[in-house]
Amino acid sequence: METDFRLESSLWVGNKRYRALLTGWHFQWTEVDKKNRDKKTISVPVSEVVGVDEGQVEILPQKSTEDTDKDFTVFYVKRSSSGGLHGLLWRLGRIQFSCPSRVLRDQWTQHLRTALKTHSPVRPHRLLVFINPFGGKKKGRQIYHSLVAPLFELAGISSHVIVTERANHARDHLLKKDLTGFDGVVCVGGDGMFSEILHGLIGRTQQEAGLCENDPSVTLQPCPLHIGIIPAGSTDCVCYATVGVIDPVTSALHIIIGDSQPLDVCSVHHTAALVRYSVSLLGYGFYGDVLAESEKHRWMGPLRYDYAGTMVYLSNRSYAGIVQYLPADPLLSSPRDKTRCLSGCSVCSKSTGRLFPHPSDSGSLYSSHFSQFSNDSEEGEWVSVEGRFRCVSLTCMSSSCPKSPLGLSPSAHLADGTGDLILVWDTHPLGFLKFLYRHTSTQDQFDLPFVEVHRVKAVRFSLPAGKEEEAFEETGGLDEEERRHVETISRNGSQQQLTERSMGQEIANEQKSATPFLCGLCCSKAPAASVWNCDGEILPFTNIISRIHGQLVRLYARGIEDGATMHSCSEENCERA
Ligand SMILES: CCCCCCCCCCCCC/C=C/[C@@H](O)[C@H](COP(=O)(O)O)NC(=O)CCCCCCCCCCCCCCC
Ligand SMILES: Nc1ncnc2c1ncn2[C@@H]1O[C@H](COP(=O)(O)OP(=O)(O)O)[C@@H](O)[C@H]1O
Ligand SMILES: [Ca+2]
Question: Where is the composition biased (Acidic residues) (predicted)?
Answer without folding.
Answer: 470-480
